[in-house]
Amino acid sequence: MMTNLLPSLQTISPVAGPGQLSSLEGALATLDAALQRYDDCTHAHSRRVVGYAQTLGDELGLDRNGLRWLGYGVFLHDIGKLSVPDVILQKPTALTWSEWVTMKQHPLIGYRLICDLPITGEAAEVVLYHHEWHDGRGYPYGLKGGEIPLGARICAVVDTLDALTSYRPYRKPVSFEAASSYIATQRGTHFDPRVVDAFLAIPTWQWALLHTGPLRTSDLPN
What is the Cα gyration radius of the chain? Predict the structure, then answer.
């Protein structure tokens, strides 16, 4: 599956200028279709978190270019799950130790795929570091605090928001109010305090609206 994506993705420039955005959008559309065929849950999740991340990035003061690359990185953050067996992704019960080890490889696998392409820098950092924790207990490298790129810190919050408020084979979704309360409890442990404060400054109804509104690949900023 991932090999089939390379012909389209390899045409992307590392710094996409105005004349190259159509090629980039075409590659993202190819990946969007591949994710949908492989795992609809991961596909829908990847699309939703783009809107969440860019809303939070805007609250944190990212400029237009920063928001664009944040969107690309967040859209690609789970690309490594294309290598995770379907039986693990859709398992309705807790993962075994060996299954969890396999699952935890997806940031590294996704990053290696991205690094084989001309997409690097900020977007690739989101893919690699989005499971790092502010207190250093995350993976794959156990980075902490400011060692974690801002885009990955943003992705960590919105990734959790969507995971909590969306259906999963092993549990039902919670309300956006409950999800926001949980994220607040993880301030300074799992999540960067500054990112959490910005997240909490945005009303829960706005997150809920982003969740229900469809996002097209063409909605990514340019």
Answer: 16
